[in-house]
Amino acid sequence: MDKLVISGSPHVHAEQDVKSIMWGVVIALIPALLVSVYYFGIPALVLTSVAVLSCLVFEFLIQKFLLKQEPTITDGSAVITGILLAFNVPSSLPLWQLIIGSLVAIGIAKMAYGGLGKNPFNPALVGRVFLLISFPVDMTTWPTPAPLGTVPDAITGPTALGVLKEGLMKGDTVTHLMKNVPTYQDLFIGSIGGSLGEISALALILGGLYMLVRRIITWHIPVSFIATVFVFTAILWQANPEKYADPVFHLLAGGLMLGAIFMATDMVTSPMTYKGMLVFGIGCGLLTVLIRVWGAYPEGVSFAILIMNAITPLLNNWFKPAQFGEEVK
Amino acid sequence: MRTFKLGGVHPEENKISAGAAIEFLPPPATVSIPVGQVLGAPSKPLVEKGAKVKVGQLIAKGESFISANVHASVSGTVKGIDEVTDTSGYRRKAIIIAVEGDEWDESIDRSPEIKYECALSADDIIKKINEAGIVGLGGATFPTHVKLKVPQGKKAEVLIINGVECEPYLTSDHRLMLEKGEELLVGTSILMKALQVDRGLIGIENNKPDAIAHLTTLAQKFKGIEIVPLKVKYPQGGEKQLIKALINREVPSGKLPIDVGTVVQNVGTTFAVYEAVQKNKPLFERIVTVTGKSVKKPSNFLVRIGTPVSALIEKAGGLPEDTGKIISGGPMMGKTLNSLETPVVKGMSGLLIMRKSEAKRIGTVNCIRCARCVSVCPMGLSPYLLAVLAEQSEWEPAEKGRIMDCIECGSCMYICPSGRPLLDYMRVGKSKVGQIIRSRGR
User: Which of A6, A13, A74, A216 to mutate to test the interface with B (most CBs of B within 10 A)?
Assistant: First the structure.
């Protein structure tokens, strides 16, 4: 007989490990990817592949030659970063810009801090914001969607949030502007201009449900995030429907679903307790609306999440888990 | 259905030996009875090489407050006092007896009849339990008589009997409840009398519906005893978790169950109490589950203390070819054995034989801050943080983070997707912080 293994308890382990969690997230992103390929065609597939590939290559090179670690690219986390980065850019973005974005996401936002689990900010969002600031024109030129096999009426157009922001700044009314934005049905299905992965609320919600069922994420962050945006914009809309768009529009337009379901729920950069997660989600929601309504950018989801990422350590300090034995009856 | 509130996990139950009736394992040729089988001081041997002993004879005496007597589990000749490897993996002092026949001490009542009435006073009951060397048979091995002595100024209101058996695989308590139900209930009444309470609750997880039904029927004849089915959730057999589940009270940090008016005893212990008080039989045998996915005949044996585990494994169909790990206890809290000659002790509820493929831990990667360890911790701790603090020798913040509250249930490490050795570090932290706290007291 071989030697017996001696180790401390426990001697069994739950099914999920980091790999299965990460690849589970990748699976959850597939519906949104399919919708993207349907409306934006082959470029959507090319962009996503290039982002994933460059994230993997950068992580591999950095681990192998800079950090001299055993490369861990098979854990799936770099794949997620790649997909999410691609999902946050327009389908017309030049590939070289996307590759730079991948380098920033992996090199600066992740590996510089020590790799998986140690980064304070969501890598894909850092990459996205870097691109938005560095290449503002390319990052806000939105090809109009055209289902596979059809030709779009116009080559590019603004996003729904862009139409609203620009119109309001020119003094237009919401009622009038709403005639120029896609219908709620299009917004829900994804037949709209926008970043690759954000267009279809339906596909993103499907992915979110999959992650909930597999217990990869909990409901706390997405629900508090989305509910806050809904309530806040509903109050504004009630106060003045000519100046503020209705809450359903705010839920479906822009990157809220992508952000709330896939980016804010990033375990590494979100709080450790349910209470902390709820506050995190509420903070994301408030900041998103503040930026959308009063900020310079039409969309605020990325900034909102990054800001809340920054205060996550504080939230962890403020919201400790409820300890057993504190209440004596 | 009732359960505890905070945290918990649900590992695969794997109760494959649940259908196997308790089987008597005849005494082996030689037994090694460790003198330290208790969470406390080892006992002092009373016999010397060459002495003849009978089954049930006192062979080592517990002399300090927290210790327990040890009795001969076989009849025969003492071969000597030697060191044997026990479940801790260390070599410890044990009394070695060569078995000759099976001659029991005359004072033990070996009749099969169940004796219901108990005329003894509370003090006499506790004395009898002390003499019989009974310790917590759920695995903690804390001396039972110490638990029953309610400190001045405190009052027990309810007795809790732990029939949860939340560890996967183990079935010794389950079989006991099915086969020794009446004795168990008499034992419960005796413990209630010892504590001077009129209410006894037996908590059983509802993955044992047969035991729940059986005991519920029997309990109708007993005054004040109630069977409470509980939702299956690990670690419900933890004392504090069971108290929370049954009477919704939380034992404060650093306090004992008696501080919230209760005392908890395991069903195996309760049965031993019945035998000691009613049959004058000291604790020298116990029920041990032998199980594992590759074990030919998963079984529940009634075994004499001191029998080498190899004898149990042999009887259960032999050691499987693919054995990778042998565990004393269940897969969540059990201890790995390094020798097949390790003797059965009072605290050994089962032997789990794991395959090679199950024996290794998953690889360790960086913490991804998924917070699962926090959400499953039944004590509401932050294992990810405490493990890092212990790793970095930051004892003060670890103490503030209530590392001493950790019950070592292993839920954090079970769930950790990064495969981090959380409990290994917490144990190091607990032992160090414990030392610091004790040195402060001096």
Answer: A13
User: Are A322 and B380 within 8 A, CB to CB?
Assistant: yes
Token look-up 């049965």 returns: B271
CB contact under 8 A, A8 and B423: yes
Nearest in space to B264 (alpha carbons), one of B278, B247, B281: B247
* Residues paired with residue B104 on neighbouring β-strands, in sequence order: B55
Q: What is the biggest distance separating any 2 CA atoms in chain A, rounded to whole angstroms? A: 84
H or E stretch covering B91: strand B91-99
- Say what the pTM is: 0.91
Q: What is the rounded CA–CA span in Å between residue B216 and residue B210?
A: 10
Going from N- to C-terminal start, the domains of chain B cover 372-441
Q: What is the DSSP string of B183-220?
A: HHHHHHHHHHHHHT-S-EEEEEETT-HHHHHHHHHHHT
- How many other CB atoms sit within 10 Å of the CB of residue A72? 19
Exposed, middle or buried: residue B391 (CB in 10 Å: 0-12, 13-18, 19+)? middle
Nearest to B337 by CA among B292, B284, B283: B292
Compare CB distances from B378 to A114, A274, A324 and report the shortest one's residue: A324
- Distance from the Cα of A31 to chain B's closest Cα (Å) equals 24
**Closest B-chain CA to A75:** B365
Which of the residues A9, A25, A318 would you substitute to probe the B interface, choosing the one with the greatest number of B C-beta atoms within 10 Å? A9
Which ipTM score applies to this complex? 0.90
Q: Do B369 and A268 touch (CB under 8 A)?
A: yes
* Interface test with chain B among A6, A15, A324, A327, by most B beta carbons within 10 Å: A324
Task: Output phi, psi for A205, to 5 deg.
Answer: -65, -40
Residue A274: enclosing H or E segment and its boundaries? helix A274-294
Domain ranges of chain A: 18-139, 156-192+218-316
User: Of how many residues is chain A composed?
Assistant: 329
Q: Is A68 exposed, middle or buried (0-12, 13-18, 19+ CB in 10 A)?
A: exposed
CA distance A267 to B369: 6
CA dist., res. B256 & res. B409, Å (int): 18
Query: pLDDT by residue (tens digit) across B340-378?
Result: 999 999 999 999 999 999 988 888 999 999 999 999 999
Token duo for residue B427: 């144990």
What number of helices (H) and strands (E) belong to chain A?
A: 16, 2
> How far is it, in rounded angstroms, from Cα A255 to Cα A297?
13
Q: What is the pLDDT of residues A76-128, one digit of tens each?
A: 999 999 999 999 999 999 999 999 999 999 999 999 999 999 999 999 999 99
